[in-house]
Write a structure and sequence with these properties.
By secondary structure, this protein is of the alpha/beta class. Helix content is about 40%, strand content about 20%. It contains 10 helices and 11 strands. The termini are far apart. Bound molecules: NADP nicotinamide-adenine-dinucleotide phosphate.
Length: about 300
């Protein structure tokens, strides 16, 4: 029997998708060994400012149906461990749809589950959770979806059709890796500076720390992207970063928010990924490495 989809990770983004999908179309996966209440109840603050009550069932695995998809909405460092914890109870045909920012976690999942359909999504939708039972849809965007392996190619159309039910803007892409890189560039150029300077996005642009290091960040990124077959250059990447920093001038980045709230950041999957990949290829990446270490030094997630 085919039925609704499952969402792994009932945080900001998972709750946004669950609230936008039609009632009954999605359930949250309960953690193994945990027996939460039957429903996850919260309020969604919409883009128009209205407040909607949302009630999403918790589902333990195995589910009594074949899920249409498993949307993985954990932070990047939790995606693979969370999936390993439930994979035995998930039908092999169920597509895994990865929503993590950055790079590295998606490849790790695709390598760990080579025969399962693995799909990545990158979204410019924005959601945050000012209180445990409130999710704010903070910004409208586009969600790009593309497969990471052969099994994912076949599953892509049904997954996109499933996500369309949310009413959010969803687009299939044949090159999701390029989209993930484009988002990583923006995150690498904004997030660590906002976290280290404890300021909103737009304010980084005149800060000495940013002005001293942004060209180094972009040169290292451009060198790595060129090596990976994506033709670009540092000045173009810097221009892209600054367009987004200005367009989101008052926004608090997820990394700044994580630091403010004492949570682990995704730095290892953003600047840390760049540094790690460069070092593996004997390409120097001292600026991305330095920013990674500085963000680690103000958090506990070494
Ligand atoms: N929020 C956005 O607007 C947005 C936009 C684009 C991309 N993203 C990306 O989407 C991902 C999720 O972001 P987010 O803002 O939604 O993060 P979040 O609010 O921290 O949500 C992550 C959720 O995953 C849960 N989780 C962790 N391990 C789990 C496990 N083993 N089983 C079940 N649940 C588990 C966490 O539970 P606990 O809290 O109990 O640990 C948390 O509720 C990130 O990679 C982020 O970069 C987010």
């Amino acid at each position: 029997m085919a039925s609704g989809g499952l969402i792994l990770g009932a945080g900001s983004l998972g709750r946004l998708w669950a609230a936008c999908l039609p009632p009954g179309a999605a359930a949250f996966v309960s953690r193994p060994g945990q027996s939460p209440s039957l429903y996850c109840e919260y309020r969604l603050q919409t883009l128009q400012g209205s407040s909607v009550n949302v009630s999403v069932p918790w589902q333990s695995l195995p589910a009594p149906y074949t899920p249409a998809a498993l949307l993985v909405a954990t932070k990047a460092m939790h995606a693979l461990p969370a999936l390993k914890g439930i994979s035995e109870s998930l039908p092999k045909s169920t597509p895994i749809v990865l929503f993590q920012n950055g790079l590295g976690s998606q490849q790790a999942v695709a390598e760990a589950f080579p025969k399962r359909p693995v799909i990545a999504a990158t979204t410019t939708e924005g959601a945050n959770r000012p209180q445990p039972d409130v999710v704010v849809h903070a910004g409208r965007g586009t969600t790009w979806v593309g497969s990471l392996n052969a099994a994912g190619n076949e599953a892509l159309t049904p997954v996109v059709e499933f996500l369309f039910n949310s009413g959010l803007q969803v687009e299939a892409t044949a090159d999701i890796t390029l989209r993930l890189w484009q988002k990583l560039v923006i995150n690498a150029g904004i997030n660590p500076f906002t976290a280290l300077l404890d300021c909103p996005n737009g304010q980084i642009l005149k800060q000495p720390l940013y002005l001293k290091h942004i060209d180094g960040v972009c040169e290292e990124l451009a060198r790595l992207m060129n090596h990976e077959g994506m033709l670009t250059n540092a000045s173009r990447l810097r221009a892209d970063i600054e367009v987004v920093a200005r367009a989101t001038t008052h926004n608090t980045s997820s990394m700044r928010s994580d630091v403010q709230n004492g949570r682990a950041t995704e730095i290892d999957f953003i600047n840390g990924y760049v540094a790690h990949r460069c070092e593996a290829l004997n390409l120097a990446a001292p600026v991305n490495r330095m920013l990674t270490e500085q963000v680690h030094s103000i958090t506990n997630n070494h």
